[in-house]
Amino acid sequence: MIRKKIKPFYIIQINTTDLFAIDTKHFKWSADGKWVSFFATPTASWSNDSNTLCVLSSAADHFQVIGKMLWYEKWKKWAPTKNQLAFISGEGRFFVENTITTVIDITTFYERKEYTPKGYVDLDLEWLSPDEVVVARAKENKEWKEGPIPTMFTSLYAINIKSGEQKQFTFPKKNELDSASLVVGSNITWYSSIEQEHQGDVWAKDSINGLEYSWLKNVASTPTFFNKK
């Protein structure tokens, strides 16, 4: 009975050069429900280095490959009110280079802009407002080739995607890093930790220009917020 209710929605045409995949995952709908983003993932080892970010219209009449990125679900997020998709593009599992904050307007597919300055990597992403995103940014490390993977000491930056203005707003001390930003209303939280430590503190601001304060101490990760809809 259940099988009879299941109908094909869209068949992805794959090939070995432009789009090779054996699975799909991490589906996310846009704010208006007209588009869904997802990963088309190749074989297990390959997917550690590269996945294909795709979008599909709710009527299944428009499919588009957006680009290559790693398989982190939190690295792709729809704007809160517009059909804009922010994601961290790039390939390579070690985070030392080539992770770039990119925003694309899905209604045109041509208005794509990259915001990560040359010489840096972005390793986290969150929408702050319809026109602003927050990223965790560090200097790239092209010198590393082998051995233990180096820690990327990230700080948080706010990017205005209209004006292009970028502003650093957290300043961790030596051997510390700030990451995992979350936005609830105008409030911003993030996780501040010390290199190789298994616990850290959650800090918060009531706005991007507000005073930061320590909210939770000695926790293993950031809290999870659930929005009432």
Would you mind describing this structure in some detail?
With 229 residues, this protein is mainly beta. It has a domain at 71-219: Uncharacterised protein PF15525, DUF4652 (Lipocalin, Beta Barrel), CATH 2.40.128. The protein is built from 2 helices and 16 strands. The chain has helices at residues 2-5, 44-47, and strands at residues 23-29, 35-41, 51-57, 63-69, 76-78, 84-89, 100-105, 112-114, 120-129, 132-139, 155-160, 166-168, 176-184, 187-194, 200-205, 213-219. Strand 9 (120-129) and strand 10 (132-139) form a beta hairpin. It is globular, with a radius of gyration of 19 Å. The two termini are 32 Å apart. The mean pLDDT is 91.
What fraction strand? 35-45%
Helices and strands, in order, run as HEEHEEEEEEEEEEEEEE
Summed over residues and divided by their number, the pLDDT gives a mean of: 91
Quickly give the CATH architecture of one domain. Answer: Beta Barrel
| Percent range of helical residues | under 10%
Order of strands across the biggest sheet? 1-2-3-4
For the termini, the CA-CA separation is 32 Å
Q: Largest beta sheet, briefly?
A: 4 strands, antiparallel
Number of helices: 2
> CATH fold name of one domain, please?
Lipocalin
Strand segment count: 16
Unreliable runs, pLDDT <50, ≥5 residues?
A: none
CATH superfamily of one domain: Uncharacterised protein PF15525, DUF4652
The backbone outline, from C-alpha atoms, is globular
Q: Which CATH class of one domain applies here? A: Mainly Beta
What structural class do you assign from the helix and strand content? mainly beta
InterPro entries: 6-blade_b-propeller_TolB-like (IPR011042)
